[in-house]
Amino acid sequence: MNYKLEIKDGKWNVYSPKIDRYVMEGASVDEVKIALSIDMEYEMKLEIIKLFMTFPHGFSTMNGRTIVHKEAIEEYEAWRQKAHQRIGFPEEYHSLIDEKIKELLAETLT
Length: 110
Known about the structure:
Layout: E1 4-8, E2 11-16, E3 21-27, H1 29-54, H2 70-84, H3 90-109
Antiparallel strand pairs: 1-2, 2-3
Helix pairs in contact: 1-2, 1-3
């Protein structure tokens, strides 16, 4: 999370440098907490997607070697970039992430 906060007349404004705009204006502290917790949830979901798409990349073997799975990283990064283009549209962005997790879990469980 990389937000900038300001308080004006007792209300909170939240600015996102990622998309170069305010994502909340005139919000209560509770509204800000909820929005930031949702953002944290989706950041964690991205980490889960990365694990599923790239595993076992980055893990070490018992003999101390690091496993490299370059193609999987490239595939994940391409998907992430595509999803990131929709970050200015939170519902669509969250939907892309949720659908990818469902897809990956379905593949894993079959």
